[in-house]
Design a protein that fits this description.
about 190 residues; elongated
């Protein structure tokens, strides 16, 4: 069974709720955030504060607000997971984590653009190109660091070999020490 895709459309005009007096809108937003108010109660609240809104407009507004709150909760959960990961690996690659987060935002934006303008698509295209370039830089940086570590380990292994030979250690002992310094598994 194919996954269900949700197509979000851009509103053709602003919601009548967003055009209400700011004090009324704030009261509606507070009631929606608390989540204990029905649509009919919200309509009554708006009317009692001197505003006007249809039941369907309030329903659409509540639905959109709930979707945004859910996205916000998901973002908070994701941030908590990433922060736990950083806490577990404080010397981990933060730049790679940020790159993945940006990539998720870009792909989410792409999935929500049903009627994107050419400028929007160009922006996303440039963002994806930037991600690819950043990936290459991160990989090149990792490769350079590993190469540097390997060179230092090789130098240390050579010095251990020279010192061990001066002390009269057997070739087997010298090879064992070299392998430990170089990180080579025993055979």
């Amino acid at each position: 069974m194919a996954p269900k895709t949700i197509v979000k459309r851009k509103p053709s005009r602003p919601s009548s709720i967003t055009q209400l007096d700011p004090k009324i809108k704030e009261a509606v937003d507070t009631a929606v955030r608390e989540g204990r108010t029905s649509i009919d109660q919200l309509v009554e609240l708006i009317n009692s504060l001197g505003g006007e809104a249809s039941r369907s407009a309030v329903g659409r507004y509540v639905k959109t607000a709930n979707e945004r709150m859910e996205e916000y909760r998901q973002a908070q959960q994701m941030a908590a997971v990433w922060m736990d990961k950083i806490g577990a690996e404080p010397k981990g690659d933060v730049s790679r984590m940020l790159l993945e987060m940006l990539r998720m935002v870009a792909f989410k934006s792409i999935s929500e653009t049903e009627s994107a303008s050419p400028e929007d698509l160009m922006f996303l295209s440039n963002a994806i190109k930037g991600f690819a370039q950043t990936d290459k830089l991160v990989i090149d940086k990792e490769f350079a660091i590993r190469k540097l570590i390997a060179a230092k380990a090789e130098k240390a292994a050579e010095e251990i070999t020279k010192g061990a030979r001066k002390l009269g250690a057997s070739e087997e002992t010298i090879q064992t020490w070299r392998n430990k310094v170089l990180g080579v598994a025993a055979q």
